[in-house]
Design goal:
By secondary structure, the chain is of the alpha+beta class. The chain has eight helices and five strands. The chain has two domains: 67 residues, Arc Repressor Mutant, subunit A (Orthogonal Bundle); 77 residues, Arc Repressor Mutant, subunit A. Helix content is 46%, strand content 14%. The strands form two sheets. Strands 3-5-4 form a three-stranded antiparallel sheet. It has a two-stranded antiparallel sheet with strand order 1-2. Helix 2 crosses helix 3 and helix 5 packs across helix 7. The chain starts with a helix and ends in a 23-residue tail after the last helix. The mean pLDDT is 88.
């Protein structure tokens, strides 16, 4: 099978799937070795980096997703008749920050850090798809835990959680000096 055909197959699957998909699943679906899938993904990424392409191939924590380039967002939203997203409240941003930096976390942990009831913020973040349930913690009462989603990464322009800014700017670059 030729490289161009593998790339076309990957492109079709990524387009149709819409959500991020792992390379092992792509290999299984296409009945190809992972090495050929990896080469095909590299080829697609290279193709989409060209200025004449309106698409990009995102790698979100090892999972791949076809997306439109950010600069074309206004026209895509207009075409989809999507209303402008309502900005997050301060309470929702605080809650999201606690989850992003400490995940997986329980609602009780979030409330302990914030010092206030966070039920409505957690519910709103779940509705927006920025967080999801991550199972139950091995603590008394087995509370539900929460983590951020791939949608969170896309919305904030991150490839992985490692791209989150340091909690305190003065901590930047100090990881190995402690």
């Amino acid at each position: 099978m030729e490289q161009i055909e593998i790339e076309a197959m990957l492109e079709a699957v990524l387009f149709a799937h819409a959500d991020p998909i792992g390379p092992e699943k792509l290999a299984a679906v296409l009945e190809l070795p992972q090495s050929l899938v990896a080469r095909g993904l590299e080829g697609l990424q290279k193709r989409y980096r060209r200025p004449e392409s309106g698409l990009e191939l995102l790698c979100l924590e090892g999972h791949w997703q076809l997306a439109t380039k950010n600069q074309y967002g206004p026209w895509v939203r207009k075409a989809l008749e999507t209303r402008k997203a309502v900005p997050l409240s301060n309470a929702a941003m605080e809650t999201l920050t606690v989850i992003a930096y400490n995940q997986p976390v329980s609602r009780a942990f979030i409330e302990q850090v914030r010092g206030v009831d966070s039920s409505s913020s957690v519910s709103g973040l779940l509705e927006k798809g920025l967080i999801e349930e991550a199972g139950r913690l091995d603590l008394p009462g087995r509370p539900v835990s929460f983590r951020t989603t791939d949608h969170f990464l896309r919305v904030f322009g991150l490839s992985s959680l490692a791209d989150l800014p340091p909690v305190r700017p003065e901590d930047e670059g100090k990881e190995g000096s402690q």
